[in-house]
Sequence to fold (497 residues):
Amino acid sequence: MTAEPLVFSGSLADVYFDDEVPAQRERYQALKESFHKRFGVWPDFYARCPGRVNIIGEHIDYSGYSVFPMAVSRDVVIAVASLESSMPVQVTVANQDPRYTETSFQHQSDSIVHIDSSVHDWINYFKCGYKGLLESHGNIQPRGFRALVDGNIPTGAGLSSSSAFVCCSALATMQVNGIKLSKLELTQRAIEGEQHAGVKIGGMDQTACVNGVKEQALLIDFVPVLRATPVSFQPVASSAPVFVIANTRVVADKHVTAPTNYNLRVVETRMAAAILAKHANLHNVATLRDFHKSFILDQYGDQSQGLSDDRQLQIVLAYIDTKLKPGYYSLEDVAAELQTSVAQVRSRLVADVTIRASGFQLHSRAKHVFSEARRVYQFRDLLISSDDSSGDLLKELGELMNQSQASCSDLFHCSCPEIDELVEICRRSGALGSRLTGAGWGGCVVSLVQRSDLDRFLDHVQEEYFFRRWPEMRGDGSISNYLFATRACSGAALLPA
Ligand code: NG1
Fold:
């Protein structure tokens, strides 16, 4: 990830693949004209940010483990015109999609902008990007602007439509205010900004959206520092792998379900880390990765350096079987394990997130996290070190994706019946690997398919899942919104208008 400031791309061809450019040119032109029609002025520039698909490494970013996503071909584009400096500083945001009504807000010197996270409103994500960016630039006199949004990332589908929007808003705000940031700095501002939306978040999405690279996936590390390393699919290039996204059409609204799903998993993994650390008499442990690293150092001292990531994770996986019980813990059980009070458990592990739960599953959550972290390293190692002389590499990558799905479904309980069914159909239709992507509980499935099998795969999946459930889709042309192949795409960009 470069530390150079993010500057204008020369043309659409820098951002999109050559065969996409003509359609994108029309799209940007239409956006420009709508902007003029609505605001009576022409935009100064476009900010653009893609969604992402996570290939492997689910629900482990907030435990500090590396993940393996890539940016996808669906994106958010915002056309922007700055206003002359005036008081109060006003920002107006409209959307090409009529479901989202035009909104204006005023910059506030103390809080930057008020965000009511109890209300699920699209503009909150725009405000998150705005606030995240300007919070760390308290000394500038901000400028107002007008923005028109055009997005085609399916919402609530695990493809990071909200994070892409936050990143894109932060990018637009950066440019309007003459701030120069690198992609990494922009990513960090967007991560901080999205915390204001009311869900406890990891950092995978913003990192993948901003730092995407054409034809490469990203290995994202969070510790000791945020880093995105492009990894090419060159070793399997001769088998021509394609990633296909299929949307269950079950809307996974994280904002609404967070207290029983996403936030609860954040708390369960924290509780597991705290109890494991207590048993091993380790201090300063916040995440499962903190526990893992401290435990290995404590047990193996200098020799720990010679232990591969894989071996270390095998060791901690064996440890949890002896220290965490299967089934549910109550808050009282957790307090007893930590030799503290329920009030202390609440303030230490739950205070910053809203959850609704009477029991906490710790063994299965920790087992998922450690085994999924192992699979990410195995996936990376296969791509980095193999030359695929056996021709089996793609199958091995697919098998890791299948194992990830089993773990998400059986241990982390973030799948749902529709995902399970769609995954089965994808595998029967020729996918080498298929799994949910993103937070789960609905949303999309990602499949690894050989290019030579692609047409047959798409035909089969559309018949078996989509047309069977929604016969009207057969003739209405909407299938390409729910089932599409994607290449790894480039990340955040500024384009001249
Ligand atoms: P979604 O809801 O699919 O965008 C969420 C988190 C990720 C990660 C995945 C699960 C946010 C913004 N995104 O992704 O960081 O934890 O779930 O792997 O919180």
